[in-house]
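I hope you will forgive my troubling you with a question about protein structure. You will find the record immediately after this paragraph.
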Amino acid sequence: MNSPIILIGPMGAGKSSIGKRLAKRLALPYRDTDQLIEERTGVPISTIFDLETEKGFRQRENKILAELCDAAAAVIATGGGIVMLEENQTLLSANKYVIYLQASVNSQFQRTRNDKKRPLLQTEDPLARLQQLADHRNPIYQRLANITINTDQQSMMCSVDQIIQELGLD
């Protein structure tokens, strides 16, 4: 395999957790777009949102995604909003291994409700915000994905097994 495996989907769907395990199983490097942005800027994503707004963050995200799509094979976990820039949609569409990790809004809420590092959830009603994001982003995830895996009712290892099977790598 010489193309990256790119995990897309909403926050709380398991992109980072599943991505790490998938990379280990496939003996591929693991890359996380959010983590790379934080490493390169030296500040948390919330600080970038505060200083540069979401638009500035999305531009940084685009540079990282372009770089990773041109690199050697790896498992790449992306931020939930990476699909919001058209340039990123083009990059993702050109990749043959885009996996949409799907999660219900209720699952997302349960998994993220105590996480204070998610700028888009620092609101009066995080559940309503998750629903708003889902309404807007889910159709984009579905359009871009080659494979969709629902992570609501299965363990991370079952999700990894299902991805490997769907990719024909078992």
Notes: Residues 64 and 116 are 24 Å apart (CA to CA). The domain at 5-166 is CATH 3.40.50.300 (Rossmann fold). Strands lie at 5-8, 30-32, 75-77, 98-102, 147-150.
